[in-house]
Amino acid sequence: MLPRRDLYPGYDVLAKRDSPSWNAKTRAVLDERLAIGPETRRFFDESEWPTMKAIADRIVPQPADRANLVPVAALVDHKLATDTRDGYRNPDLPEEREAWRRGLKALDAEARARFGARFHELGAWAQDALLKLAEAGELTDAAWAGMPSKLFFKQRVLADVVEAYYAHPTAWNEIGWGGPASPRGYVRMAFDRRDPWEAAEAKPGREDEAHAENLLVGR
Prior knowledge:
Gluconate 2-dehydrogenase subunit 3 family protein
């Protein structure tokens, strides 16, 4: 496997914490997210938790050399524990918490039926195969209790897991995003232009230059 390329070397979005880029509300929201550890859970039970973590690892696999992993499963758990809803729901899906409980139970049932083990006990290939079948709507075990596996995959698994990943500062560093810039805002909106408080992307052969610029982003 080729080594992961750092597109924004030296960039740490948390360096903006006390700069004009962020207001008190942004800081409070980020502090709450950063307090959630990888094993923090209040909603999922002991049986559901390993399945949830395995799903998160397949949907948004993270680099093995990353020092601070995004606690994706724990962030999904936090959303469900606080009953933070989307404000809309497909009529063919139950409410979010029930959808997750039913979906995790069903994925384990499908895993046992096809591979003789629970979902989290399977290898990556088998896990991916089941998720692809769910995406195609081809999982129909009785444990789904009428909930379409296709909708569960697209509107709960993808939506909640990807949202959790990109809500975390570690992911922001990865994509060079500066978070909600309030009150400072963004000024240079034209193509291929950036404000001095935005991350500098490392062009091939100019990594050191980008690193030096990114060390100054929070100032």
